[in-house]
Specification:
It is a single chain. This protein is mainly beta. It folds into two domains: 64 residues, no CATH class; 321 residues, Porin (Beta Barrel). Helices cover 7% and strands 57% of the residues. The chain has a 16-stranded antiparallel barrel. The longest helix has 26 residues.
């Protein structure tokens, strides 16, 4: 049946074309199909002035060529096309433009490798006072440089890094631009398998701590940053799934060990290279430690809400008592107040058993309140650190800070802060400022 239908179709086409072929033969004309259409050439100039930001003023000379071609095979069959040669992007910078024409179709808009990221320059001062023994009072003036390059080798493969120059030890007396070291905090490859799955490998920070990552303020992460799993070597994966009105959720799993390579040391002021014999949680040079985390956001019936649930297991190092295990529950809720104002609440609790491979148990509890009225930001935040000692007794430590930041624009900001803290049941206070300049290369 299929063959008979195909033969019938071919016959119908031949019969329909026969009068045309016969007419061409009698008239003595060529049998080539007639070709028609038109070509339009256009040259123009456009100028814009008296514009408001972010529109720009410009003078633009441009040209177009439009070819409309018609190829008639038979009297009832034709092939038509419209091929355009024209400018394909608007003026994006001040000044005249005389841009060469490119064909609109087949333009490769992304070329690789691409280099992006940012660099942060910071000038800081900390003044510790009203300190109880053995805490020391001091004046500390220092600089910080944080370079975060992103090298996209392909559309899916990137190399990310965090390279720093900063003080590598706490002050023991007045200090002015001393004890600065250059070191690599992270250096890893990331591959996007698709829109939802990504893989990481190298030196990175496995997903666990939350509040110390998202709470602004100069001293807001003074204690809770102790549970950041910085400078670990390993690999892992992250998968994001969309639950519709219930938001986007990212599940991650990482396995790792503490960095004992040459990258654990620093240039300038030396940190000293970590050794396996130093012990400590996850200092095993084998993939025995891991984190699993689930993070959600963009929940339509909870606008502005973000959460993280996480588990960490760090294998005992040489000479340690036991493996460390811990959980984390963190939430953040943002409320837009209108007229460029917003209020954000942050909360986190993280109990850990056999903290850092010891027999001690510890609980970190963090809270933050952030009020923004651009260009001003006010932050009140703090962390409680309760530690149960295996030898008996407890440390009931805390750090509470208040800070104000002003954004001058163009990546420039200034912050001042004051902190009350208790460390191992010893009280002290400090005041300080940070002047920041961010250079963005994206």
């Amino acid at each position: 049946m299929m063959k008979r239908s195909l033969l019938s179709s071919c016959a119908a086409i031949l019969l329909g074309a026969a009068p045309v072929l016969a007419q061409e033969k009698v008239a003595g004309i060529k049998a080539d199909p007639p070709v028609g259409g038109e070509v339009v050439f256009r040259f123009g100039s456009a100028a814009a002035d008296d514009t408001e930001t972010p529109r720009i003023e410009y003078s633009d000379r441009l040209g177009d060529k439009v070819a409309s071609r018609e190829i008639h095979g038979i009297d009832r069959f034709a092939i038509n096309s419209d091929i355009q040669l024209e400018t394909i992007r608007p003026v994006t910078a001040d000044g005249d433009r005389e841009e060469s024409l490119v064909q609109a179709e087949g333009v490769d808009v992304a070329t690789y490798p691409q280099i992006g990221g940012d660099v942060i320059f910071r000038l800081g001062y900390d003044g510790a006072y009203d300190a109880e023994t053995p805490r020391t009072e001091s004046h500390d003036l220092f600089g910080v440089m944080i370079a975060s390059p992103e090298i996209h080798l392909t559309e899916r493969l990137a190399i990310n890094a965090d390279i720093r120059i900063e003080t590598v030890r706490p002050p023991t007396a007045d200090r002015y631009f001393e004890d600065h070291g250059l070191f690599v905090r992270s250096l890893y490859a990331e591959y996007a398998v698709g829109d939802r799955l990504s893989l990481q490998a190298g030196k990175f920070t496995p997903t666990f701590a939350f509040a110390s990552m998202v709470t602004p303020g100069m001293y807001g992460n003074n204690y809770n940053k102790e549970i950041e799993l910085i400078e670990r070597i390993g690999f892992g994966a992250e998968y994001t799934f969309n639950a519709g009105a219930s938001g986007a959720h990212t599940l991650s799993a990482k396995t790792f060990f503490e960095d004992t390579s040459i990258l654990s040391d620093s240039l300038g002021a030396r940190r000293g290279q970590r050794q396996l014999a130093d012990g400590g949680a996850s200092n095993t040079e084998s993939f025995e430690s891991c984190t699993v985390a689930l993070e959600g956001r963009e929940i339509s019936w909870l606008p502005g809400f973000t959460y993280r649930l996480a588990y960490v297991h760090e294998a005992a190092g040489k000479g340690d008592v036991a493996d460390e295990n811990g959980f984390l529950v963190a939430v953040m809720q943002s409320f837009p107040l209108g007229d460029g104002q917003s209020l954000t609440l942050i909360g986190e609790i993280a109990p850990l058993w056999n903290f850092q491979g010891t027999a001690d148990n510890i609980i970190y509890t963090s809270a933050g309140l952030v009020y923004q009225d651009a260009p001003w930001t006010a932050i009140l935040s703090g962390t409680s650190r309760w530690r149960e000692m295996a030898t008996g007794g407890t440390f009931d430590d805390y750090a509470v800070q208040a800070s104000v930041e002003y954004d001058f624009g163009q990546g420039t900001s200034l912050a001042i802060a004051h902190e009350f803290s208790r460390d191992r049941n010893v009280n002290s206070q400090r005041i300080g400022f940070r002047f920041n300049q961010v250079l963005d290369f994206d």
